[in-house]
Amino acid sequence: MSGETGIVLVERVSKSFDGFRALDEVSLAVRPGERVVICGPSGSGKSTLIRCINRLERHDSGRIVVDGVELGKDPRAIRAVRREVGMVFQQFNLFPHLTVLENLTLAPRRARGLPAAEARATAMHYLERVHIPEQAGKYPRQLSGGQQQRVAIARALCMKPKVMLFDEPTSALDPEMIKEVLDVMVELAMEGMTMLVVTHEMGFAQRVADRVVFMDQGQVEETAAPAQFFAEPASERARLFLGRVLGH
Amino acid sequence: MRSLRILALCLLLAACGSSTYSWGWYVVLPTTQQGTDNLRFLLSGLGWTVSVSLLAMLISVLLGLLVALPGISERRWLRLLNRGYVEIVRAVPVLVMLLWVYYGLPVVLGISLDAFAAAVLALALSDSAFEAEIFRGGIQSVARGQHEAAEALGLSWTDKMRYVVLPQALRRVLPPLGNQFAYMLKMSALASVIGLTELTRRANELVVNVYRPLEIYSFLVLEYLVLILLVSWLVRRVERRLGSDESRA
């Protein structure tokens, strides 16, 4: 198992929802430090793919190995993988009954067994990294959408993950707040974090991605360096997609 | 306190309406020695009413939560277990449950309970089915994304429930829980049937002695009203303290 290269390995993974084939024999290998942007039309399976990587969805067939641990039925293996894989959701999913600081310290304390003081110090460190240390004592509902998403990023980082998954992190944000979230993500990428990002933000893809994965109808249609993907996509469907996304 | 005034008004109107009845409020007025003794006698049931209700409520909340959890499981047999418990326990009238626990348990299991323990057990069991449904509803009202965020952070199922899901669910079920508290207080009156000397039993006993049922039962109504208003006030206070709007974000 350890001989395989790549921190995330997805091999011929398929997944169906009530007869709808969301993933159709998808394979993908991500090296440590690599930034992969996954794009494609809605319903193409891109969210399902990254949700399988931390087992929020169960794959029907194929193999998924994260940091040397294969995802299967063993709940301890699943938790071990989840501790190493941070996730940022479209809807932020902060815990509304907890303060920002409590949102950040809960998992390090309970899942990593960190002492309170240390968890707090880590939390403040990451709040500074996402530029909102002054919001530590507030509740999520008191923050703007952009601030909430930055808290969500900090919350994931507090677990010191080896991989970060982003599931359309800016899709629920007002336009003026998208930049502050993307800026934080760019900084994270510059520091060498391994990232898998599902997004329609093609500017972000051009700036930070090592690779763009284009998905359609549950399959990886095309994988390319961003320069090549945006200049001349190989597939007709990618061309159509880019025309729609970049057209306005 | 407004409702107290309304009640007093109703009683007054009733008194005026039936001119043939001559009221004898002296039986429950502390102006005479007899009245004071009667009041003391009636109020001596308060301790049992409150302790039976509190204890039964506590047990039914814990039991209800325990029964609710399999109800949200992904496993079918666990959900069936929850369904079965709720349907069966909910179908038994409280009075029947009480009689069955008090008279039936000694025969069936050889366990003999005194009136207090039987009342606590019967009320707690009866109510637990309702609590279970309240909790299940509350837990299911917590958004899927909250579960996913907790799971994605690597929290165990227990930690996810304890720190993320249940605190949010609990805030939402406070109003119906308050209902059940009030209900429990009222149902505790049934324990008079098996001889527990709580408020209703005391009233019955006094009626036999002084034969002033209307006055004594009116006073009894007042006793329950005060208790239930107290419960409402407490629940509202807790609701405010927990800031039940925090879960909406």
Automatic annotation (TrEMBL), chain A:
<dbReference type="GO" id="GO:0016887">
    <property type="term" value="F:ATP hydrolysis activity"/>
</dbReference>
<keyword id="KW-0547">Nucleotide-binding</keyword>
<feature type="domain" description="ABC transporter">
    <location>
        <begin position="8"/>
        <end position="242"/>
    </location>
</feature>
<dbReference type="GO" id="GO:0005524">
    <property type="term" value="F:ATP binding"/>
</dbReference>
<dbReference type="GO" id="GO:0015424">
    <property type="term" value="F:ABC-type amino acid transporter activity"/>
</dbReference>
<keyword id="KW-0067">ATP-binding</keyword>
<dbReference type="InterPro" id="IPR017871">
    <property type="entry name" value="ABC_transporter-like_CS"/>
</dbReference>
<dbReference type="InterPro" id="IPR030679">
    <property type="entry name" value="ABC_ATPase_HisP-typ"/>
</dbReference>
<comment type="similarity">
    <text>Belongs to the ABC transporter superfamily.</text>
</comment>
<dbReference type="Pfam" id="PF00005">
    <property type="entry name" value="ABC_tran"/>
</dbReference>
<protein>
    <submittedName>
        <fullName>Amino acid ABC transporter ATP-binding protein</fullName>
    </submittedName>
</protein>
<dbReference type="InterPro" id="IPR050086">
    <property type="entry name" value="MetN_ABC_transporter-like"/>
</dbReference>
<keyword id="KW-0813">Transport</keyword>
<dbReference type="InterPro" id="IPR003439">
    <property type="entry name" value="ABC_transporter-like_ATP-bd"/>
</dbReference>
<dbReference type="InterPro" id="IPR027417">
    <property type="entry name" value="P-loop_NTPase"/>
</dbReference>
<dbReference type="InterPro" id="IPR003593">
    <property type="entry name" value="AAA+_ATPase"/>
</dbReference>
TrEMBL record, chain B:
<dbReference type="Pfam" id="PF00528">
    <property type="entry name" value="BPD_transp_1"/>
</dbReference>
<protein>
    <recommendedName>
        <fullName>Glutamate/aspartate import permease protein GltK</fullName>
    </recommendedName>
</protein>
<keyword id="KW-0029">Amino-acid transport</keyword>
<comment type="function">
    <text>Part of the binding-protein-dependent transport system for glutamine; probably responsible for the translocation of the substrate across the membrane.</text>
</comment>
<keyword id="KW-0813">Transport</keyword>
<keyword id="KW-1003">Cell membrane</keyword>
<dbReference type="GO" id="GO:0022857">
    <property type="term" value="F:transmembrane transporter activity"/>
</dbReference>
<dbReference type="InterPro" id="IPR000515">
    <property type="entry name" value="MetI-like"/>
</dbReference>
<comment type="function">
    <text>Part of the ABC transporter complex GltIJKL involved in glutamate and aspartate uptake. Probably responsible for the translocation of the substrate across the membrane.</text>
</comment>
<comment type="subunit">
    <text>The complex is composed of two ATP-binding proteins (GltL), two transmembrane proteins (GltJ and GltK) and a solute-binding protein (GltI).</text>
</comment>
<dbReference type="InterPro" id="IPR035906">
    <property type="entry name" value="MetI-like_sf"/>
</dbReference>
<feature type="domain" description="ABC transmembrane type-1">
    <location>
        <begin position="46"/>
        <end position="235"/>
    </location>
</feature>
<feature type="transmembrane region" description="Helical">
    <location>
        <begin position="84"/>
        <end position="103"/>
    </location>
</feature>
<dbReference type="GO" id="GO:0006865">
    <property type="term" value="P:amino acid transport"/>
</dbReference>
<keyword id="KW-0812">Transmembrane</keyword>
<feature type="transmembrane region" description="Helical">
    <location>
        <begin position="216"/>
        <end position="235"/>
    </location>
</feature>
<dbReference type="InterPro" id="IPR010065">
    <property type="entry name" value="AA_ABC_transptr_permease_3TM"/>
</dbReference>
<keyword id="KW-1133">Transmembrane helix</keyword>
<comment type="similarity">
    <text>Belongs to the binding-protein-dependent transport system permease family. HisMQ subfamily.</text>
</comment>
<keyword id="KW-0472">Membrane</keyword>
<feature type="transmembrane region" description="Helical">
    <location>
        <begin position="48"/>
        <end position="72"/>
    </location>
</feature>
<dbReference type="InterPro" id="IPR043429">
    <property type="entry name" value="ArtM/GltK/GlnP/TcyL/YhdX-like"/>
</dbReference>
